[in-house]
Amino acid sequence: MKKTILIGLFFFALSTNVQAQLVKFGVKAGVNYANQNGSNITVNSTNYDTEAITSYHAGLIAEVKLTDGFSIQPELLYSTQGATYKNAFEEFKNEVGYLSIPVLAKIHLNKTFSLDLGPQASFLLSERNNFDVNNAETFEFAAVGGLGINITKNFFLQGRYVLGLSEASKEAEVKNSALQVSAGFTF
């Protein structure tokens, strides 16, 4: 009976150790170089050009290792995006805050580099702008692609491009885009 319990505890401890190696949790933060792009951008019947803004993102990640060369990385991020709108007469900044949930397929090219690709769903949490219209859509869908670099076993850098696939505004035909650079730590 004691042998059976000891063998059971051994296999439980072994499976717990293996399970801990298959899933890593972490945090990350970084900068966004974000813009809103579209054709014939009009707000209240006025045409505008857009310029990118610098903003930020931060949140939690999990990496689920499926094979030696492939893992899935879901994330839960707060990300600010938007643009500066300009025409000959006025200029205003539109900044929107999203709860973004990218789910990335990580293709490990070697122990240092990975190619990260996948979809992202974003839910509007806040909108700040210099005009009196709350016009952002409450949901946005995007495609994400980038490169991950493992500096150490637990410290990483990531660069990615987020391309909005759905409209970001009720007032104008625009889509969000962002170039993101971030650093993170897994434990």
UniProtKB/TrEMBL annotation:
Residues 1-20 form the signal peptide. Residues 19-167 form the Outer membrane protein beta-barrel domain. The keyword DNA damage does not apply. It comes from the Bacteria. InterPro entries: Beta-barrel_OMP_2, OMP/PagP_B-barrel. Keywords: Signal. This is Outer membrane protein beta-barrel domain-containing protein. It comes from Flavobacterium degerlachei.
